[in-house]
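Re: that backbone. C-alpha cells:
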C-alpha cells in the first residue's frame, strides 16, 4: 500500500504502528504539504463491529481539543487494494509511545509530569461525556517536547449513548493489565472512574516497571477483581507516601472511592511542583537532613502558600473545638461550671495530643481504616461506659461486661461508617475525616451525659447517640481547617533522584 493516495489527498509513506483496531501510517497531506498520521482499518463483509468502533473513534476524537490529546483532523471511507477501508487523520507525533520507556522504573519527575498531563486529557474527555476505556502505555505518545499525548479512542464510548456499546454481557473489552474491576466483569455502564483505575495501573508501571497485576488474561482479570496490589514502597523504596496513597486510591475496587481526574491532576501537580522545588536544593552528605521545604510548607504554583494548614494546627484546632463543645454540654448537667471547663479542656487536650502523636499513615488494602488515636479514644470511651455502669448499678455487672467486650468493635464499625460519611459528604481527606469522627464521638458522649438526667431509656439513648455522632462529626469537620496538605501532611523521608543529562543529582527531603 506504500505510495497509495487515500481519498485523493493523503499519500502513504510508511507504516509506523499497528494494533487490533488498525494500522497507522505516516502519510503526506498533499494539500497542506506536511506529514500526518493516517489510521486505516480494512473492513470485510459484515464487519459491523469494527466499523462501529472506528466511526465512534472518529466521532469521539473530533469532539476533543486539548494539548494532551492527539488531534484528529479528518476521517472518512475509501477503497484500498480492492477492499473497503475507513481512515482517520491525526497529528503526527514524532516521539515514542510510553510503552517503549516502561521496561524499567522511570524517573519520578517524568512520571509525575506525564501522569498529570494524562489526567488533564481525561478531564477534558470526561467533561465531554467520554470514557476512553483503554488507558495503557501504548496509547500515550511522548512528543518532541516531552509532553504526553493521549490517543486511540477506538473503544471509547459516549457515556450518554448507553444503548450503543461494543461490550456484551460477560465479555470485556480493553487490555487486561489495565482493566478496571467493572471492566473485567464486562459491565456495560462504564463511567469515568474506570479510566482512573487504569491510570492507577499505568502509574504503578511507570514507578515500578510492572503493572500491579501480571499473568495470563483471565488470571489478571481475577486479580483486578479480588487481588491486592503490593505496596509501592516495597517495590521502589523512597516513593513519596502521598504518591503511594494516590495509587492505592486509584486502584480501589469500589469506583466511588477513586479520586476524579481533576483531583488526581491536582495532587500530581502539587507533588511535581514540590519535587521541582526540592530539585534546586544542593546535594547533601549522608546523615544530614537538607534545609529544603517539604510538602507541608511548599508554596503552591500560583505563588501563594500551600492550601490549608498542616496536621498539627488542625489537631490543635479540633482539640479546642472539642474542649469547648464538651464543656458546654457538661454545664447542662449537674457538673459545676469550673469542673465542666476542666473536663472539657482535658478532652480537647487528649484529642489533640493523640493525633499529634499519631501521624497519618496511608491505609493499606485490608487494614483497619482508623488511626490508632481514634481507636484508643473509642476504647477509652467503651471502658469508661462499662466502669460507670458497674459503679452506678453493680447488679448489672453482666451488662458492664458485655459493654466492655462488645462495645469496642461496635464503636469501631460505627466510626468507619461516620468517617466515610464525612469523606463523601464534605469531600475531606481520610485523616481529616478520622479526626472529625473521633471528635464527634467525644461530643456525642458529652451530649448523652447531659441528656441522662432526662430519664431516657437505654434504647432511646442509643438511638440518640447513633443520630448525633455523624452530625457532630460533620459539624466538627466543617469548622476545623482543612486542605490538600491534610492529605499530604505526612512525615518526611529523604529520597535520591537519578540525575538527568546535563544536571546534577540531588538528595532532598520530600514528604515520603
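Recovered sequence:
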Amino acid at each position: 500500500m506504500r505510495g497509495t493516495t487515500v481519498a485523493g489527498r493523503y499519500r502513504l509513506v510508511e507504516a509506523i504502528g499497528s494494533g487490533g483496531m488498525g494500522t497507522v501510517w505516516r502519510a503526506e497531506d498533499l494539500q497542506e504539504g506536511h506529514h500526518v498520521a493516517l489510521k486505516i482499518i480494512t473492513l470485510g463483509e459484515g464487519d459491523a463491529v469494527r466499523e462501529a468502533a472506528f466511526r465512534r473513534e472518529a466521532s469521539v476524537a473530533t469532539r476533543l481539543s486539548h494539548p494532551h490529546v492527539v488531534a484528529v483532523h479528518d476521517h472518512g471511507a475509501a477503497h484500498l487494494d480492492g477492499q473497503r477501508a475507513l481512515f482517520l487523520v491525526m497529528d503526527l507525533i514524532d516521539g515514542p509511545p510510553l510503552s517503549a520507556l516502561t521496561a524499567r522504573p522511570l524517573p519520578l519527575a517524568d512520571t509525575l509530569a506525564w501522569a498529570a498531563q494524562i489526567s488533564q486529557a481525561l478531564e477534558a474527555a470526561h467533561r465531554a461525556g467520554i470514557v476512553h476505556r483503554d488507558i495503557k502505555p501504548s496509547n500515550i505518545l511522548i512528543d518532541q517536547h516531552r509532553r504526553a499525548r493521549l490517543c486511540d479512542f477506538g473503544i471509547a464510548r459516549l457515556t450518554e449513548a448507553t444503548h450503543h456499546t461494543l461490550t456484551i454481557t460477560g465479555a470485556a473489552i480493553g487490555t487486561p493489565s489495565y482493566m478496571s474491576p467493572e471492566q473485567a466483569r464486562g459491565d456495560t455502564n462504564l463511567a469515568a472512574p474506570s479510566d482512573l483505575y487504569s491510570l492507577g495501573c499505568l502509574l504503578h508501571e511507570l514507578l515500578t516497571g510492572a503493572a500491579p497485576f501480571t499473568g495470563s488474561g483471565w488470571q489478571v482479570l481475577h486479580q483486578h477483581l479480588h487481588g491486592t496490589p503490593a505496596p509501592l514502597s516495597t517495590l521502589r523504596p523512597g516513593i513519596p507516601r502521598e504518591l503511594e496513597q494516590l495509587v492505592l486510591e486509584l486502584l480501589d475496587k469500589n469506583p466511588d472511592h477513586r479520586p476524579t481526574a481533576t483531583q488526581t491532576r491536582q495532587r500530581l501537580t502539587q507533588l511535581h511542583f514540590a519535587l521541582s522545588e526540592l530539585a534546586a536544593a544542593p546535594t547533601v552528605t549522608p546523615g544530614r537532613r537538607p534545609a529544603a521545604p517539604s510538602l507541608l510548607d511548599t508554596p503552591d504554583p500560583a505563588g501563594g502558600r500551600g492550601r490549608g494548614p498542616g496536621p498539627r494546627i488542625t489537631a490543635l484546632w479540633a482539640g479546642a473545638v472539642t474542649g469547648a463543645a464538651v464543656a458546654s454540654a457538661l454545664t447542662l448537667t449537674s457538673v459545676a461550671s469550673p469542673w465542666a471547663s476542666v473536663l472539657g479542656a482535658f478532652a480537647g487536650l487528649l484529642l489533640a495530643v493523640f493525633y499529634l502523636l499519631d501521624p497519618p499513615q496511608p491505609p493499606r488494602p485490608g487494614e483497619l481504616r482508623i488511626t490508632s488515636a481514634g481507636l484508643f479514644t473509642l476504647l477509652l470511651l467503651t471502658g469508661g461506659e462499662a466502669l460507670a455502669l458497674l459503679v452506678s448499678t453493680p447488679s448489672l455487672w453482666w451488662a458492664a461486661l458485655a459493654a466492655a467486650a462488645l462495645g469496642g468493635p461496635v464503636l469501631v464499625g460505627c466510626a468507619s461508617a461516620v468517617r466515610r460519611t464525612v469523606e463523601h459528604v464534605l469531600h475531606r481527606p481520610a485523616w481529616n475525616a478520622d479526626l472529625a469522627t473521633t471528635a464527634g464521638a467525644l461530643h456525642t458522649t458529652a451530649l448523652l451525659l447531659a441528656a441522662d438526667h432526662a430519664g431516657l431509656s437505654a434504647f432511646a439513648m442509643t438511638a440518640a447517640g447513633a443520630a448525633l455522632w455523624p452530625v457532630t462529626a460533620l459539624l466538627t469537620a466543617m469548622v476545623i481547617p482543612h486542605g490538600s496538605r491534610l492529605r499530604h501532611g505526612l512525615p518526611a523521608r529523604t529520597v535520591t533522584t537519578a540525575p538527568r543529562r546535563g544536571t546534577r543529582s540531588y538528595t532532598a527531603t520530600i514528604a515520603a
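The first helix runs from residue 48 to 61. Residues 2 and 502 are 41 Å apart (CA to CA).
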